[in-house]
Amino acid sequence: MQITSRDNSLLRQVRGVRDGKIEELIFIEGLRLCEEAYRSNLAIEAVVISEELLRKERAAAVTGELSRVSKRVASVSEKLLESVSYTKTPQGIIALAQRPEASAERLEASLDANCLLVVLHQINNPVNVGAIVRTAEAAGATGVIATRNTSDPFSAKSLRGAMGSAFRLPIWSGVEYSEMIEWCRERGIVTVCADVEANTAYAELDWTGPTALLLGPESTGFTPEELEETDQRVSIPMQGAAESLNVSVAAGILLFEAARQRSFRGFT
């Protein structure tokens, strides 16, 4: 199907998903990310592709795969694609997919005796959320928990940062902080909080048991009450005058220390 009108119903739907007005669907932009969505078996609802990109061999192959599983497929001009794109420079293809399940049940199904979870607590920058999800997968984490008021891991900007990891990692979102703490406690999962004032350096902690790494808001950090509820607190020793690290950078350091210890002790 070819679309020539900006007021087309499919393009209105795309804009609605892009702007967060249709919550049951997610907005996926870019050839690589659309390909990751297909490989991750997401339920694709619609695909909109530019006529220019269709002429490219690799794009045609990806579009063919998406067409077989999508309910609606349409081609548009570059100008029309620009009107629905999330980025300043359109990437040639947009897909709408059913939002992946983000529940405790899905996360629970992936747990094992030595699970490694990442908890995002009130991190409101979607770029950081996406980067941490991507790092979590790379470090072998079991899943991610996003507490209430954390930026949506399935927003367009978060998905771009996660580069497909959000499609594969089990994610539980919208949970209250205290509920998350109790959930971990009931399952014997040690909660480890990243805290710049902690006396224990991150490399001194044993990360090989079932662990949940808690990362908090960069601007305010965890409240004293929230810190009290955790089992352990760790810091990243720093030199110079820097007071803190970007939360996604800190996540990478901590998660790969956990991965290092687990590989040395026979865990994968």
Structure keywords:
Alpha/beta knot; 10 strands; alpha/beta; 2 domains; four-stranded mixed sheet; 60s Ribosomal Protein L30, Chain: A; elongated
Helix-strand blueprint:
Layout lengths: L8 H10 L6 E5 L1 H9 L4 E7 H4 L2 H13 L2 E5 L1 H7 L8 E6 L5 H7 L5 E5 L5 H13 L4 E5 L8 H7 L2 H4 L2 E5 L1 H10 L3 E5 L16 E5 L8 H6 L2 E3 L12 H18 L4
Parallel strand pairs: 2-3, 5-6, 5-9, 6-7, 8-9, 8-10
Antiparallel strand pairs: 1-4, 2-4
Helix pairs in contact: 2-4, 7-8, 7-12
Summed over residues and divided by their number, the pLDDT gives a mean of: 93
Dominant shape:
elongated
Biggest sheet layout:
6 strands, parallel
Q: Spans of 5+ residues with little confidence (pLDDT < 50)?
A: none
Task: Please describe what this structure looks like.
This protein is α/β, with parallel strands linked by helices and 268 residues long. The chain folds into 2 domains: 90 residues, 60s Ribosomal Protein L30, Chain: A; 161 residues, 3-Layer(aba) Sandwich (Alpha/beta knot). Strands 7-6-5-9-8-10 form a 6-stranded parallel beta sheet, sandwiched between helices. Strand 5, helix 7 and strand 6 form a beta-alpha-beta unit. Helix 2 runs parallel beside helix 4, helix 7 runs parallel beside helix 8 and helix 7 packs parallel to helix 12. The relative contact order is 0.13.
Briefly say what this structure is.
By secondary structure, the protein is α/β, with parallel strands linked by helices. It has twelve helices and ten strands.
